[in-house]
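Submission sheet (multi-component)
Chains listed below:
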Amino acid sequence: MLLAFDTATSAVTVALLDGVDVLAESTVVEPMRHGELLAPGIDRVLAAADVAVGDLDRVAVGVGPGPFTGLRVGVVTARTLAMVLGIPAVGVCTLDIVAADVVVGEAFAVATDARRKEVYWARYGRDGRRTEGPAVVKPATVAMDGPVAGQGPQLYGELFPRAVEPRFPSASALGRIVETGSAELLAAEPLYLRRPDVSPPSAPKPVS
Amino acid sequence: MPDEPLVLGIETSCDETGVGLVAGTRLLVDAVASSVDEHARFGGVVPEVASRAHLEAMVPTLQRACREAGVAIADVDAVAVTAGPGLTGALLVGVASAKALAVSLGKPLYGVNHLAAHVSVDQLEHGRLPEPCIALLVSGGHSSLLEVADVTSGVEPLGSTIDDAAGEAFDKVARLLGLPFPGGPYIDRAAREYGEVTIDFPRGLTSGRDLQRHRFDFSFSGLKTAVARWVEARERSGEPVPVGEVAASFQEAVCDVLTQKAVDACRSRGVSDLLLGGGVAANSRLRALAEERADRHGIRVRVPRPGLCTDNGAMVAALGAELVRRGRPASALDLPADSSMPVTTIVA
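Outcome: structure written.
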């Protein structure tokens, strides 16, 4: 039994899978509330499928890139569950999870909100395999007429005129990736792509 | 010892990743991983650096705590975690981990107040907390005087800093004097070595009118500026800055105000127990002066050992254990992290 979740976008998505069968799924789109929504979501899918937490044999987490605070909620939850239950935790790039639900029959891209007027970005071939990225970029540098999934087209419509579904990752797609190996499996380590925004202080300002 | 509930406490409100295990008032282990060295070159705690460090240290610190205490994680009866106040991103790492523990162990979760945890930690060293007591909590993030009627349900704030926290003043003055971060221990040492108080630095909010409006509040911003002026005057005159002398006089000004107001709070409330907590409570002069002044009025002083004064998981476990003992309701799984959680909220 696999528990899968992603908290690297405005969506908090949780799914429970038995093989590739999705037993229960819960997705709530609400920014800045990952810390509040994830644990109840886990509780809810376990209860809905009548599965005990001890029956899990793997946990999967979207490892971003995505806004750091929410991203860490998912990663630390996966690592803690893995420790307590003695099961492995695997990671999948959040953009790959979005890409897994894209149905267009041609090459496409995924762009999600990186704030600060930037996007998290990756490009995919017709077969759905990632060919470029993930990276954090100014949207103008990757503007394209082809299909773009993720929230990018809603935020930068002129640069990404052809929006395709989905806008957010789904935990069921994450679960299927892990079960089938259809995208790269990673460690449960966040893909920050940015260094902490700090610089050493200058000398104290004189007061007199 | 009868089987008292085993409570695990997690603290990640600032730069220490702490995990403690407590049975009743018995401390089994206090495991702390600090990211302070990563912040030193920035002269203060950088929230994003702290949050990243918490994520990396969280599970290893949980594992180390269990190993050193010789307990299996499955033996834990309740999970307590600092829900606030503190840095949001940092708090959330601990809160999310605590929820994952509660869900996977099927045990209750208590999201607790950091300041109330600083008060309850003393139980681990000196036995049951005298209630009521007055608590003086001083650290890099807080400077508060609290009246504690019941540490699990009745904590009343009497006063707090209106600008810088006491520990922040120590850090800023240390930087002026070219001492490392965090400044507290270095100023303490330099002051001890110098050994006398020669400069009359200002005592904030201790004059007549200020006392009427801010009897139990603190202000350290003016003191910090006064020290900076003094140091700059020295530099302008081309003379070397006497680090020990400035450190000793600055420290005396801080400790003088803190202890004066703490003892005044005890006397005005008719409370005969004073508790010190928070990182600045590790300061040797603060401890000595508090005891000297309290003693004159028959007030008992309790100060946990320095390792329990700074942020740690044991204090969170200690409060959790007390909440369990007094049958207080647990938190819901949608518990938020609250960066400005008021001290009147002990369990969120």
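Remark: The radius of gyration of chain A is 18 Å.
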